[in-house]
Amino acid sequence: MDTERYNRQLILKGFGEVAQQKLSKAKVLVIGAGGLGCPALQYLVASGVGKIGLVDGDFVSLSNLHRQILFTTTDVGKLKVEVAAQRLSALNPEVELKIYPNFITQENALEMLAQYDFIIDGTDNFESRYLINDACVLLKRPLIFGAVSGFEGQLAIFNIEDKNGEKTNYRDLFPIQPNKGEISNCAENGVLGVLPGIIGTMMATETIKLITGIGESLVNKILNYNLLNQQFYEITITPSPARTYKLPAGKDEFLKMNYGNTLDKKHNQVLEIDIDELQNLQNQDSTLIIDVRETYEVPALNPLDYKQVPMSIFESFLNQEIEEENIILLCQHGIRSLAAAEYLHEKYGQKKNIYSLKGGIIRWKNYFTNAS
What we know:
CATH topology of the largest domain: Rossmann fold
Distance between the termini: 62 Å
Number of strands: 13
CATH architecture of the largest domain: 3-Layer(aba) Sandwich
Shape: globular
């Protein structure tokens, strides 16, 4: 152990060499190298956690850089875990880093999580959150959870018994997984770049506290933080009544659960198209273009060319019959539109040609601004 590297921790009253040794022996898995994962990784590596696994199958994009500060402009297009591992190794070569250049799925989750003592969920979608939660419950692994949207963030610790012997998980907070696209994430709502930095650092803090046993952890509590007024408040989480939700009892049940995660059959169901293909289809007689954004989102599109059906009422819209042969869904970033397109494919199958505009209006904003 490099005592000079960790000097400020070693001399800290109530921490010292005993706590540092606990850190050096700990194994932490960080799922997601995004806005939450980047700061969590930096401080966990700097603190001297012995082994850290990093899971992410995504590539660096320009829109990541205002909050994912492990990356720079020259990293755009590169695999996140590879860039992150290089930077983190330079920060602290004593830490063993293992990268998983893929997304978390039902097929790989249990094997990966079983190798680590603590799990940090830095993902930004409900499919992954419920999958990770259920896997942690099944494997009896502590879960450090964080989420951000707009100007607010949340932080919680699940699957650890409190002083009263009670243990909660994510489903005690939100028992039922929402449908795809039903609740937008930060890619749709936006987020101020410093917010995930704050919450991600707090996630690292809670992980260090759990490993070393210092302080009082957020077990069975969810901490809410509002960046605009710098206010915090806690809500106590209690176990839900029996049969409020179902958790998989074993590996077979886990593999049969329907999380609807991103690596499903969507590419066999819905074709994502670019703006040129949208224009070609738009010129055909039997084409309907549906904007699934909420009414307050901008830019507003010409109602003569685009039918607006917000995701908040899309379920009721599914009861209507569509006459057009080609159906194109679009939204701000191409996330909700893909979910809406999958719903339509479930209804019509091969009877209709169903498309989603890849990247959404933001990616092709010049076209829509000029068109409007």
